Amino acid sequence: MKRILNYILYGIIILVSRLPFTLLYLFSDLLAFILSRIIAYRSEIVKQNIRKVFPQKTKNEHKQITKAFYTHFADVVLEGVKNFSISDKEAAQRFTIRNPELVFPYLEKGKTVICVTAHYGNWEGYALSAPLHLPNYIMCMFYKELSNSYLNNKALASRGRNGTELVALKDTYEYFEKNKSRAKCITLVADQSPSRHEKAIWVDFFGIETACLHGPEKYAKLYDCPVVYLDIQKKKRGFYEIEVNLIAENPNELEDGELTQRYFSKLEKVIQKKPEYWLWSHRRWKQTRNQ
């Protein structure tokens, strides 16, 4: 029975993915309404996070950000489904990189570049489109495994069909160690709240003491990797552009925690400009220092 349900669900995903974008966004509008008004998907978390980050804004401004967030979140969900059947040509047109040449000197010297980004804009489209813009370089992205192994494998096949090496988070150290002699771009979506409190790096994020994942800084220093931030901006519905920003060229010259602080300071500036494109439904501040 589970296998049959998996086949049915995957069949629905493929059918929806073949819809033209104009029709897809009609479904996205409906999904946004359902998420925000019918089932109130994580609505209290969204509202609490927005109030915490923007205490100076009015209630009306909070409502506007909340509404825009659900619209964008629904777009990201449906665009993720669309990626199962989108052509490479259209993927490259809809997800571009403004200044990829910033990482070329490091890669050509045989160095690995760690690319940190966040649950902002459309992080799903990057794995599919990045190799189309950087065909001469190895691209790697870490992911969190889905509980449904069938759908997990189908998602990996879709995301990695253009050559991105997809690695489970649990295998992070093994991948770095095994591939330390290969020049590559390794992308980490690292704005989640860490599960292991004792390893967290604490930074100032929107004036709030925030626990952060230690991985990007740990591996940057361990393998002497330059670090860049991938600023994924939504230019219009269905179209995104990445701007590459240097965070640290020589991470071992920085004090402990400084690299992570630079990363979150950059993310903070990005969110301040267009807050609706961040994933407000995360439990971002569930940990405190005294835990």
> Which regions have little confidence, pLDDT < 50, spanning 5+ residues?
none
Q: Which structural class should the secondary elements be placed in?
A: alpha/beta
Strand content: 15-25%
Pattern of helices and strands: HHHHHEHEHEHEHEEEHEEH
Shape: globular
Q: Roughly what percent helix? A: 40-55%
Tally of individual domains: 1
Outline the structure in words.
- This protein has 291 residues and is α/β, with parallel strands linked by helices.
- The protein has one domain.
- Helix content is 46%, strand content 19%.
- The protein is built from 11 helices and 9 strands.
- The strands form 2 sheets. The chain has a 7-stranded mixed β-sheet, with helices on both faces. A two-stranded antiparallel ribbon has the order 6-7.
- Helix 1 packs across helix 4, helix 2 packs across helix 4 and helix 3 packs across helix 4.
- The longest helix is centred in the N-terminal third of the chain and has 24 residues.
- It is globular and about 50 Å long.
